[in-house]
Amino acid sequence: MSLGTKEYFVKETFKSIKRNQLMSFASVSTVAVSLLVLGMFLLMVMNANNLAKYLESQVQVSVYMEDGASQNAIATTEKSLKALPGVVKVTSINKDQAMAKFKKRLGDQNRLLDALGEENPFPNSFDVQVDKPERIAQIVPKIDEMKGVETAKFGQEVVEHMFKLTELLRMGGMLLVFLLALATLFIISNTIRITVFARRREVSIMKYVGATNWFIRWPFLLEGMFLGFAGSVVATLVLMQIYLALQEKVYTTLAFFPLIPAWPFLGYLSLFLIITGTAIGAAGSCIPLRKFLDV
Amino acid sequence: MKGISKTYPSGAVALRGVDIHIKPGEFVFVVGPSGAGKSTFIKMLFREVIPTTGQLFVDGVDVMSLRPEEIPFLRRQLGIIFQDYRLLNERTVYDNIAFAMQVIETPYRQIKRRVASVLDLVGLRSRSGDYPGELSGGEQQRVAIARAIVNDPLLVIADEPTGNLDPETSRDIMRIFSQINNSGTTIVMATHDKNIVDTMGKRVIAIEDGYIVRDDAKGVYGYEPGH
Q1: B149, closest residue in chain A (CA to CA)
Q2: Which of B147, B136, B22, B16 has the alpha carbon at shortest distance from B81?
Q3: ipTM of the assembly?
Q4: pTM, whole model, 2 decimals?
């Protein structure tokens, strides 16, 4: 393909987009909205997955003592815990420390605790760290049986809930994304249909003077791809702003929440969305062309 | 063309067992009443219409067995001219002609040179920057002729090229066709114009009701004007 021909294709593409401003705008917006929703779902699903994995990889069990447990019982329990296989570290947290930690987490809102008065509802507890996540399932029943232990908690239940949620998000998201992709395909193919229709005379003359189908197709294909590309860029930019803002918010208020770091995560996501958008654009322009090229 | 027949899906028969040989460099008129099969005959040559039976060769190429992707290359050997000019109104005279070269990916420089030379041939060099809407019918048809010959076709196919023009303009147009023919290009022209056919004294093929009823080397129109 010569340089002059490429130049011709690009010129024709932009001429056509300009001529069709309203439809082009509608296409770009639809692509943008669809991909934005797709992107949001991806963000949610991936973060939920990440959270579930994070929780699963936790090698910590929280052991809560019964409220009336004596200092003696507490010391014995600590010793027993240390003796369990795979236990690396046992940190004792007494009632006051637990209260102080909670106050700190509440930050500005620690006055809520005033309602409690002098009461301290926190039990004495231990944070037990093990060497491998698989150990947890073995030692938790043993801890539960220890005297003076109220309960031993670890991430398992939460993890199961998280996986269920992720699954639901994924399925709902897939369906929605599929429908939106269909809508996008439809509107892009309609835009191209209008373009082709407006230029059917040109197309027929091209055929009479011996243009190949690919030569005729390229400008329309480029137009569709450009519309898809433009829409996905808009979606990507909006999504980035949303995620960065969310990240800021999470870091200041929910510091313990394992949000996937923005980079390079957003980079991959953007690349994926842009490729998807451009591909939908290309596919959308191929549909109406098939009919018109048949001269 | 050997034993060519065409029956349209509607059941209408346009051509019946047509055998014709057109030699390179010939100038051939195709005449006959409306609906006799002239258009079908013309359209077969550039494979817009595919014969139902028979054999059709253009420049040695079996047109009927062409695969779809080969059709463009057949058409590059042909220059096609229509009664309604079929120019692109939003492009200048120059661009309309250059367009035919662009779509077959001719280098830019060659386009410039060649377009200038065909504009000279049809006498429209000074109008190259004008739009088709600013030209008279005769001038528009001359642009269409320039577009048809710009790629040096072996065969120029013209379907009623003077159908919309007054007699004097038609004569000008025919002078250009003669010139093109003199340079060795074959011309096949369907027409209703008695004056033109009779004054040119070229081969005339008359089609009636799908049959070839006459094929004279130096023929006349043979119908009453307005037929």
Answers
A1: A209
A2: B147
A3: 0.78
A4: 0.66
